[in-house]
């Protein structure tokens, strides 16, 4: 018999709806409680979804006193650290929304708490569940490209700046890099097996976000809306990372892997003001290689699928909890991303190359 997995949800805003909708599709899940700091918000959330057996709280620590197996953390970035560490220390497994944290120090602390608790901390990057993401990883890791020495990733929206907590440095940590850059960084780094970063030289700006012409909250816009970074890794690998929430350009280019025997280009799906960045869907794939001594390019058919990636991410977490598997997308791995973002921010402030600080 399948064990019932008892779940709590911390934060009942936009993305919490996506979590709950997926949990409701899983017959072995019971939504035991929801917490939100805004008075009455969790109760309203529970009532609006007719979750009659689900308790509502204003303090996540009260929710954590319940008999739960795991929690989804759906709060703004600034609260990821405290809620995750509290949940782990209370002995609950954690599915945490991206990005992992506001600061690198928080991410390090979260990994420490994970190790001490023996529980799972998995970060919610649903694009990982796209079979084309796996295809990219398989091609890169197959050796067909030879030694990969250069990777370029990121991209840009022509217009696509969020507001609210997303544009406050203390609440979000970083802007476009953390919000959408984390997806393309994850694709590239995951395909490369999350290599160890060494140094970064970067530039960031926020010409659009701080201009009333482009952003209604320009007066309180504190993060970067554009960033470019050159990141060095162990084993003579370099990654160029470009990201933008707004720009006078259609795209900042494709993701590409350059190897000694071949190259792989990954285009984002679609076009338009929001689509020139890779943040979830593979548009098309091309392999560049020599054939009979001639430079040749071969389109690689992308895998058509009907999978709901968000459902897959929630189901994978539930399966890991109920079957005792390791974290599907471990916090320890995504800590590397946080270290890179931390280095990018320091480098752009100091206007020089800096070492990327990893705790191990
Ligand atoms: N995976 C995705 O596709 C995806 C999409 C959108 C947002 N996100 C991520 O999800 C997170 C939440 O984003 P959102 O758009 O739902 O934000 P939101 O502002 O709509 O909702 C966040 C909720 O958390 C509550 N909250 C804040 N601090 C809390 C605390 N300490 N305890 C309990 N509740 C607390 C707020 O009151 C709010 O109701 C962000 O980290 C964001 O990056 C992920």
UniProtKB/TrEMBL annotation:
Domain Gfo/Idh/MocA-like oxidoreductase N-terminal: 5-125
Domain GFO/IDH/MocA-like oxidoreductase: start-end pairs: 135-264
InterPro entries (alphabetical): Gfo/Idh/MocA-like_OxRdtase_N, Gfo/Idh/MocA_oxidrdct_glycsds, GFO_IDH_MocA-like_dom, NAD(P)-bd_dom_sf
UniProt KW keywords: Oxidoreductase
Family annotation (Pfam families): GFO_IDH_MocA, GFO_IDH_MocA_C3
Oxidoreductase found in the keyword field: yes
The keyword Oxidoreductase appears for this protein: yes
PANTHER family reported in the protein's UniProt record: BCDNA.GH03377
Name assigned to this protein: Oxidoreductase
Organism this protein belongs to: Paenibacillus baekrokdamisoli
